[in-house]
């Protein structure tokens, strides 16, 4: 498997096929005398910003601390939770229960539902 | 056990033991071993990008058109030949001559 | 890429510095000509009942404004001509305002003559080197 | 039978989708200023857009990916952010222009200045997106869009001299007003080859759940639909050349263009022009707004879909809500709609390489499209047209702005 081509930046869907973000980062574990192991997928604004520029990442993190939704840390998914890597990366979690959708949920509750026809 | 962000390794320049530039990391190959996925090798150099886009026909003809006659600076580095103890400056623990070049491999694939 | 852009910009400046006051004059005259033709067509179509009153009034006013703006850059004898055209358009506007289809025929005829005179002027200017 | 219906519907949609403020404005400007001499630009742009629309439908049908998804996955986010930002900026200007087109249409009919219409129009667009489904938007607007065929009817009524029209197929650069000629040529190409169309079309194909069985439908819709759309554009150009040019009217503002149908049809011609402009722009405004929400949501992997209830795709709905109101502000402050249109169309030509080239690479990627890869012909047509538009754009835009 080509990790960058086939996994990084791909769509993540939960066990109900709900879109829950994309693979913003891949965390590996370096081990003595053994090949590095793919440990987690990460999804979240700070992880993404880090790739563009470290300063942008610090700025995003500061903004999130100030105004962000709760639990806005990048969300980690252990590699063992991955069910299938095809067009999308399918993981065995329920998106609504994770912090990956913190902003989606915040917008839904605070903004969208308050607009007529939004609830 | 040290953790490392793979996406931040992308595009990092790899140096050999003498401190010369080898190329940039563009792709990482992994394989399933028993329960876990492990990294086998890192692909370095321009040809790695073209391969990542798997657009050999268009890519190579375009590169030829732009004047790149050979893609001889692209290598595959086995996981145990790359020292990642300083992720900002990854370096080889072997000489370039021991590495396989990607372009040769690809020509073999094509034929 | 940057070089290409830079080259474009250079060409630009060269072209601009060459563009003489004569070319500017021509451009102004062409614009006046186009808006005069517009006013005339609006007047005619309004007379035939082919456009709404509000539209006719607005567009005539706009033609007048555009012509006035160009007139500032013009010298005699063109400036005098465009001044006359503006006055004629004022008559068209008055006719439209009072919804009097009968009174628009005369100023329309006048505008048509002035338009032809303007064209002659424009042709003469175009022939000059 | 179902497929036939889909083809028919798709063609109707494309006519509606193809024709927007850019197509009408640039064709009117071209015809009034240069007669038939810019017909070649419309033909060239149409051939290129047929190829590209066919490709984006093929990509979506074969790989189940939208164009934005595919570019992000293959090229990585760090690359995708470039076309994304470029496209959002251009979409913003185009949306402002489309809203302007609707407002002008309303101004023509009511006499109330276009600035007053901007917010109500933006609200109507938003309401339709908020409440409507993809099918309603696609089919409803496009059926109304058939009114634009009035330009084709007008063309036949005006009996243009065929040899003169045929001469317009050859790209001949005139001695006078060369820069303006090139600028309008660029604007025509930019108006026809609008990247939002491809992103939108591929997202639509995914929303409609196309698979490889739809390749034939896709080809028919792209070819016939875009072809018909282009005939309407040609109609606008020919009518402007027949009616406005002989009188010496150069279209500098929409009020002047509004006169072009009064000669063949009288009062109804005026109303039909306003209706065509209003409906075409309203449809295109819906598409541009949706497109921006699509590409943003797809960039970050959010849930998206016009068929979803707003609460199921909160961030997606939020993006289009904010975007459409921001873009309408361009009109509220009173920027001239026609100048904004021409400028944003020419700017589109500048971003074409970055928006289209990654797409071409994907269309040659065996993993994505398998045996349905591009042939050399469509590759060459697209590369040639994009390169031509880009070069013309960087030469003509500064010239036009500085006033040469």
Mean pLDDT across residues of chain D: 89
Beta-strand residue percentage of chain D: under 5%
Order of helices and strands of chain D: HHHHHHHHHHHHHHHHHHH
**Extended strand count of chain C:** 0
Describe the biggest sheet of chain D? none
Protein structure class of chain C: mainly alpha
Structural class of chain D: mainly alpha
* Distance, first to last CA of chain C: 37 Å
Largest contact between protein chains? C-D, 35 and 28 residues
Characterize the quaternary organization of these chains: heterotetramer
- How many domains comprise the coordinates of chain D? 1
Q: What do you see in this structure?
A:
The complex is a heterotetramer of chains A (about 120), B (about 110), C (about 130) and D (about 400). With about 120 residues, chain A is of the alpha+beta class. Chain A is about 30% helix and about 30% strand. Chain B has about 110 residues and is α+β, with helices and mostly antiparallel strands. Chain B is built from four helices and eight strands; from the N terminus they run βαβββααββββα. Chain B has a five-stranded antiparallel β-sheet with strand order 2-3-4-5-8. In chain B, strands 6-7 form a two-stranded antiparallel ribbon. In chain B, strand 2 (about 15) and strand 3 (about 20-35) form a beta hairpin. With about 400 residues, chain D is an all-alpha fold. In chain D, helix 5 packs across helix 16 (about 315-330). The longest helix of chain D has about 35 residues, at about 75-110. In chain D, about 65% of the residues are buried. Strand 3 (about 25-30) of chain A pairs antiparallel with strand 1 (about 1-5) of chain B.
List the helices and strands and how they pair.
The complex is a heterotetramer of chains A (119), B (111), C (129) and D (404).
Chain B: E1 2-5, H1 6-9, E2 13-15, E3 21-33, E4 36-44, H2 46-52, H3 56-65, E5 75-78, E6 82-83, E7 91-92, E8 100-101, H4 102-110
Antiparallel strand pairs in B: 2-3, 3-4, 4-5, 5-8, 6-7
Chain C: H1 2-18, H2 21-47, H3 53-71, H4 78-97, H5 105-127
Helix pairs in contact in C: 2-3, 2-4, 2-5, 3-4, 4-5
Chain D: H1 2-18, H2 21-34, H3 39-63, H4 67-75, H5 77-110, H6 114-131, H7 134-145, H8 150-158, H9 162-167, H10 178-192, H11 195-207, H12 215-243, H13 254-257, H14 262-265, H15 267-300, H16 314-332, H17 337-363, H18 366-369, H19 376-402
Helix pairs in contact in D: 1-7, 1-12, 2-10, 2-12, 2-17, 3-10, 3-11, 3-12, 3-19, 4-5, 5-6, 5-15, 5-16, 5-17, 6-15, 6-16, 7-15, 8-12, 10-17, 10-19, 11-15, 15-16, 17-19
């Amino acid at each position: 498997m080509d990790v960058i081509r086939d996994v990084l930046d791909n769509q993540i869907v939960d066990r109900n096929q709900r879109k829950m973000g994309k693979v913003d980062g891949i965390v590996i574990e370096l081990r003595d005398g053994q090949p590095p192991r793919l440990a987690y997928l990460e999804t979240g604004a700070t992880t993404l910003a880090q790739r563009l520029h470290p300063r942008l990442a610090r700025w995003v993190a500061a903004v999130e601390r100030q105004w962000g939704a709760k639990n806005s840390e990048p969300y980690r998914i252990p590699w063992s939770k991955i069910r299938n890597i095809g067009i999308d990366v399918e993981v065995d979690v329920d998106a609504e229960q994770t912090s990956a959708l913190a902003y989606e949920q915040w917008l839904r509750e605070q903004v969208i539902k308050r607009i007529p026809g939004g609830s | 056990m040290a953790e490392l962000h793979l996406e931040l390794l992308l595009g990092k320049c790899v140096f050999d033991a003498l401190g010369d530039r080898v190329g940039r990391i563009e792709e990482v190959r992994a394989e399933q071993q028993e329960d876990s996925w492990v990294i086998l090798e890192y692909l370095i150099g321009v040809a790695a990008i073209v391969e990542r886009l798997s657009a050999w026909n268009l890519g190579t003809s375009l590169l030829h058109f732009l004047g790149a006659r050979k893609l001889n600076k692209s290598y595959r580095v086995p996981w145990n030949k790359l020292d990642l103890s300083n992720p900002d400056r990854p370096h080889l623990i072997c000489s370039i001559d021991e590495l396989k070049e990607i372009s040769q491999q690809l020509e073999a694939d094509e034929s | 890429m940057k070089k290409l852009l830079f080259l474009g910009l250079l060409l630009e400046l060269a072209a601009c510095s060459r563009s003489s006051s004569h070319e500017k004059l021509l451009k102004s005259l062409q614009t006046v000509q186009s808006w005069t033709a517009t006013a005339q067509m609006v007047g005619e179509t309004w007379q035939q009942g082919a456009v709404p009153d509000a539209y006719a009034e607005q567009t005539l006013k706009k033609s007048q404004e555009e012509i006035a703006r160009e007139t500032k850059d013009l010298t005699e004898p063109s400036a005098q001509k465009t001044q006359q055209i503006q006055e004629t358009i004022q008559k068209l506007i008055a006719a439209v305002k009072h919804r009097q289809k009968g009174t628009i025929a005369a100023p329309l005829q006048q505008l048509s003559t002035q338009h032809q005179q303007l064209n002659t002027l424009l042709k003469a200017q175009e022939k000059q080197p | 039978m179902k497929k036939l219906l889909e083809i028919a519907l798709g063609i109707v949609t494309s006519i509606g989708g193809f024709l927007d403020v850019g197509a009408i404005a640039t064709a009117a400007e071209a015809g009034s200023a240069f007669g038939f001499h810019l017909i070649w630009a419309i033909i060239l742009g149409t051939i290129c857009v047929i190829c590209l629309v066919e490709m984006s439908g093929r990509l979506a049908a074969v790989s189940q990916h939208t164009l934005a998804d595919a570019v992000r996955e293959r090229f990585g986010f760090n690359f995708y952010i470039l076309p994304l930002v470029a496209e959002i900026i251009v979409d913003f200007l185009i949306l402002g222009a489309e809203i302007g087109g609707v407002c002008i249409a309303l101004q023509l009919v009511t006499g109330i200045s276009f600035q007053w219409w901007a917010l109500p129009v933006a609200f109507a667009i938003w309401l339709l997106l908020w409440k409507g489904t993809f099918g309603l938007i696609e089919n409803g607007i496009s059926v109304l869009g058939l009114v634009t065929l009035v330009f084709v009817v007008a063309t036949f009524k005006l009996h243009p001299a065929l040899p003169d029209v045929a001469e317009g197929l050859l790209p001949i650069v005139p001695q006078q007003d060369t820069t303006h000629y090139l600028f309008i040529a660029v604007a025509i190409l930019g108006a026809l080859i609008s990247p939002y169309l491809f992103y939108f079309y591929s997202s639509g194909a995914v929303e409609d759940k196309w698979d490889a069985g739809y390749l034939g439908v896709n080809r028919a819709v792209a070819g016939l639909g875009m072809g018909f759309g282009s005939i309407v554009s040609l109609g606008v150009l020919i009518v402007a050349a027949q009616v406005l040019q002989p009188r010496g009217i150069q279209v500098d503002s929409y009020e002047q263009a509004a006169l072009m149908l009064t000669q063949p049809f009288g009062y109804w011609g005026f109303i039909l022009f306003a209706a065509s402009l209003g409906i075409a722009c309203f449809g295109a405004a819906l598409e541009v707004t949706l497109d921006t929400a699509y590409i943003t949501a797809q960039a970050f992997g959010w849930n998206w879909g016009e068929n979803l209830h707003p609460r199921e795709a909160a961030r997606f709905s939020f993006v289009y809500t904010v975007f459409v109101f921001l873009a309408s502000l361009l009109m509220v402050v009173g920027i001239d709609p026609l100048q904004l249109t021409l400028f944003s169309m020419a700017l589109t030509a500048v971003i074409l390489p970055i928006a289209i080239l990654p797409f071409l690479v994907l269309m040659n990627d065996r993993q994505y499209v398998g045996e349905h890869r591009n042939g050399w012909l469509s590759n060459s047509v697209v590369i040639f047209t994009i390169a031509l538009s880009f070069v013309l754009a960087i030469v003509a835009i500064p010239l036009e702005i500085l006033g040469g």
